[in-house]
Model the fold of this input.
Amino acid sequence: MRAIAIIEKLPLTDPRCFVAVELPKPAPGPNDLLVRVKAVSVNPVDYKVRQKRDPAAREPRILGWDAGGVVESVGPQVQLFQPGDEVFYAGDITRPGSNAEYQLVDARLVARKPRGLSFEAAAALPLTAITAWEALFDRLNVPLENDQTSVCRSVLIIGGAGGVGSIAIQIARRVAGLLVIATASRPETADWCRSLGAQQVIDHRQPLRPQLQALNIGEVDYILCCNNTDQHWAGMAEAIKPQGRLCSIVENEKPLELGLLKNKSAGFIWEFMFTRSMFKTPDMIEQHRLLTRIAELVEQGIVRTTHTETLGELNPANLARAHQRLEAGQTIGKLTLTVE
Done:
């Protein structure tokens, strides 16, 4: 099969950064699906893995953890799917990624593609939807269903126009019924956040608490940080309510001063959507259930894909261009590539 891989650790400006390789077509294990990939999306995890590549490594590494495709064959223990099913998934960071003609993925991490969506539009959803859902409901313990008390609760989503922020706004507003305040730093990203359901938008380049006070909000019940945990840590500590909860998806570079949360008895927790697959947790099936729920919400018109642009066919040049766009930090929504 044909795949796009990294072999040496090279800069994006080097035409050999990504290379087309021919690899054996893999065979599914007991719980695996063999998926013929039709479209992929790119995420910050892709370039972070590329940047951390061991300079001495020479074996091909296939990146990509967002895909839509068609089930080619199934392992002997798989009961959820059969050949011909159209599916979408993020997969497992410890296994070869989706930048290839075929990919093996554990069936417990996969769901049927939302009806009516193209493979490109579907491929834009899994990683960010899983991250946002787990962050809100598994980590922050936001009540799953909208109820009468939800209108009294608020969430601040830092980095609202990015991939995770874009889907988190929708889930927080339309599933949990929260008051959603998103952050954005440009007029076009602020408009994007409002179009997804954010009732208020503030600028994450400015101090957070004064902007919340100007909106008569003051402090918030929950904070989901999708942008530079180090930079926003002190501001989040100021903006969280007593006994509130913070969650971040962005790793820190410096020690976090947890003491800033002590007097408020506020809690902090990480979200990493590969935890279940990486550690083979007993509840891996929850990602299948989660993505199935997302597909239903898309089909009902409650949640929409955050796909904004397809950069053409999956090849070394286009993949490098996608990584460049992501690393520049100016992307709105999700970028995809078509697998021919």
In short: The two ends are 12 Å apart (CA to CA).
